[in-house]
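retry 2 of 3: previous attempt timed out while embedding NAP. Reduced batch size to 1 and resubmitted. Inputs unchanged:
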Amino acid sequence: MRAIVCRELTGPAALRIEELAEPLSGPGQVRIRVRACGVNFADSLITRGQYQKQPATPFVPGFEVAGEVLEVGAGVTGFAPGDRVLALTPHGGYAEQVAADITRCVPIPPTMSWEHAAGFPVVFGTSHVALWHRARLQAGETLVVHGASGGVGLTAVAIGKRLGATVIATASGPAKLAVAREHGADHLIDSSREDVRERIRDLTAGRGADVVYDPVGGALFTASLRSIAFEGRILVIGFAGGDVPQIPANHLLVKNVDVIGVNWPAYAELLPRVMIESFATLVQWYLDGAIQVHVSATYPLARAVEALDQVVSRKSTGKVVITTE
Ligand SMILES: NC(=O)c1ccc[n+]([C@@H]2O[C@H](COP(=O)([O-])OP(=O)(O)OC[C@H]3O[C@@H](n4cnc5c(N)ncnc54)[C@H](OP(=O)(O)O)[C@@H]3O)[C@@H](O)[C@H]2O)c1
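retry 2 succeeded.
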């Protein structure tokens, strides 16, 4: 099978397409014929040795796939060859085949395309667990979403609306803000030219935001801390901007603020019932048409490096997906 292989931890440019042996489905696993694989910002981190669960080289990147079951391993029940599934993989998705634990596989609704299924789990799963389980966002609250046209950001906008919040989206430039608007954002802030802190305070009549969803970090985190409401919650999702914020504890004390970390993949191992309940909700919302997967670009497997470059160079909106056709 063909796969995109990382042999040195120097970043995405060193990834190469290679012929590899087909994977074996071990006990409790299925072997999947990959049709599509979601591209994530963290795919770039893993090629630099900066991911929190770093595999040894050589490895194949790729955290989420959609495809058909080719074969089931020993002890597998509930899945059979031919089943359409999406799966979370610790790595290995940028390939024509991958073996996945059945505890990380979910049947795909018949109406869901391969591209939508592959672009669904990480971004919707992260934003739903963050907003529903971690921040306990309530209807009527004000939610600020940074990087609101990006992979996780756009899903946070849609889920925030579905949970009944007023959503303020920040993104760089009018084209990206228009995408956030299409997915339900009530108010838009251009983070490339407006004072984010001032605009949040204006839009909330000086009260501040109840919840902030932050996948960017750096100056946007600082602006969030200065424009958060009494008993507000700031969700630390990621650091796409590069700077990991340092938090002055006195600011948290003065306004009774919670800063809440979110490591979504950890739920698969440490608290799977949260992920399972979240997934069931999200699949139902998808079937009801309450949430949409926004795939802005697809690339063939051989052009995986370009696909990843779209994401890390800030050119993409929503999801970029790699297909194996
Ligand atoms: N905690 C978790 O469990 C979890 C799960 C998934 C992802 N994440 C993290 O969330 C972050 C976003 O992931 P994603 O897949 O949504 O990425 P993405 O699609 O590339 O979105 C990131 C957004 O960040 C903004 N940004 C600001 N400065 C940037 C820079 N220097 N480079 C790139 N983007 C920049 C961009 O929006 P503007 O141009 O509008 O500023 C971009 O749309 C990453 O740090 C990722 O590791 C965390």
